[in-house]
Amino acid sequence: MPDFLSSRRLFLAALGASAVTVRFAGMWQRKQAAAANGAPKRFIMIFNPQGVVMDQWKPRSSSGGAATETNFTLDFNNSILAPLQPYKDRLLVLDNVDHRVNADVGVDNHGPAMISAVTGAGATGNYSGNSGEFERPRLPSIDQYLAAQLNPDTPVKSLQLSAGFAGGTSAMDTLSYDMNLNRLPPLYDPIQTYDLLFGSFQPSGGGGTIDPALERKLARRGSALDYASADIERLRNQLPPSERDKLDQHLEALASIERRLDGSAVASCNEKPPAPASINATKRDNAPTVTELQFDIVAQAFACDMTRFVSMQFDRGGSFENVPWLGIADPHNNIAHAIPGGASGDSYNLEHYYAEKVAYLLEALDVPDPLGEGTILDNTLIYWTNEFGSGSSVHSHNNIPVVLAGGAGGALNTGRYLKMRDSSLDSNFWCMYANSGCSDGFYAHGKLFAAMMQAMGLSNVTSWVDPRLSNNSAHQGVETRILA
What confidence tier does 111 reach under pLDDT thresholds 50, 70, 90? Predict the structure, then answer.
């Protein structure tokens, strides 16, 4: 192995997940996404597992019948989405969204389902036990692609969060994949989240003071980063041209770390926000409180422009854990497999709980945006998705429940319920399984990803397609129906 490659790999191993590298040549853009009113656009991706009882998720008309694009309500008996009714005009409820890519590339099950939900592409292989080594993405997750392409000058480039579990190494433990397709494990403890964002925070205007011990600690960290930057700059001259762009992005990652350490990119916050109370974040009973604390910190981080891209995982893929805060002793996986039998009540309670937490986030963001006009919610795009469609033993990759919320700075045409394809295909569960041969007519959700990217400011993205399907016209194009 050449010496410069050995040194570079040792350095990258030390730097770890803080480094951001660009996998796709020619696609790096130093853009600053902003709404027309000058406020920055933010993006949040939210995931929960195991599908839903679809009749409880679908909106209904105001008279109780079938909903239409503009005549729909979420406020009816046993409605999963009822907590979101106050924000109906700022939602896009998307029905008949399919992960057709999984059928067309030949993968299925939990890990690949999560990967397709967040990347818009299929996995490299199928479920392989706890290691999940064959379950790798073919594209980065949408939050990471947006963070890399828009590349805002914020102290923390992106934030990965979870609630109720401490993470792991499989595809079912991970929501975000960077531009090198590496897994980015989530922060499960709100104290960790707060420390990352505000541990070395200095109020804008210079009114804060730093504890001397912390100042010495920051100086030591800064010295290490100075050395790493100098070292990598020396290595740059030894690299072939094809590798230099990647190395430049590592330098940008270092600059991001330095900004986070010295608080030099702080905006619109006049005092350091209070730290959250300490909590046992791995105790399942505490998941609701952990979720709210994480969302409170996100809202504060957006107001201070500490980060603009967030992923939040309500639970592991598959969710083999019980739900004690709702009095549900069975693991979520068992509940899902029992539908449409006697467990549909437990499924409703759990999915309704998730909707309550999304509503909590919307309320936290629905405050005046200190960086521009409107509210932070108006200038944010929230993508809430699921592992499967029907919560049943089928584990269907069709009819995935998807909600978009916020306004993306006026780029979304909200207040609507959209059917993405003919509902007559809903019962054909097996057509979305690997190599079924009957995927015609189902929806390719990469088109939705391309539209979300355009809404965030990447107007040059005209398709988002798994590389194996680049010649498949069904996966091409932009879902313009969601755009204003």
Answer: confident
pLDDT higher than threshold 80 for residue 37: no
How many Cβ atoms sit within 10 Å of the Cβ of residue 83? 21
CA distances from 192 to 197, 205, 217, 224, 275 (A): 9, 26, 17, 22, 10
Determine which of 65-79, 185-199, 340-354, 442-456 has the lowest per-residue pLDDT on average: 340-354
More confident residue, 60 or 8: 60
Residue 290 backbone dihedrals phi, psi, to 5 degrees: -60, -45
Q: Which two tokens stand for residue 330?
A: 């069975």
Q: Is the pLDDT of residue 392 over 70?
A: no
- Tell me the percentage of the chain whose pLDDT exceeds 70: 71
- With helix as H, strand as E and coil as C, how does the chain read? CCHHHHHHHHHHHHHHHHCCCCCCCCCCCCCCCECCCCCECEEEEEEECCCECHHHHCCECCCCCECCCCCCECCCCCCCCHHHHHHHHHEEEEEEECEHHHHHHCCCCHHHHHHHHHHCCCECCCCECECCCCCCECCCCHHHHHHHHHCCCCCCCCEEEECCCCCCCCHHHCCEECCCCCEECCECCHHHHHHHHHCCCCCCCCCCCCCHHHHHHHHHHHHHHHHHHHHHHHHHCCCCHHHHHHHHHHHHHHHHHHHHHHCCCCCCCCCCCCCCCCCCCCCHHHHHHHHHHHHHHHHHHHHCCCCCEEEEECCCCCCCCCEHHHCECCCHHHHHHHCCCCCHHHHHHHHHHHHHHHHHHHHHHCCECCCCCCECHHHEEEEEEECCCECCCCCCCCCEEEEEEECHHHCECCCEEEECCCHHHCCCHHHHCCCCCCCCCCCECHHHHHHHHHHCCCCCCCCCCCHHHCCCHHHCCCCHHHEC
Token duo for residue 1: 């192995």
pLDDT of residue 264: 39
Apex 178 CA angle, 226 and 255, nearest 5? 20
pLDDT of residue 297: 96
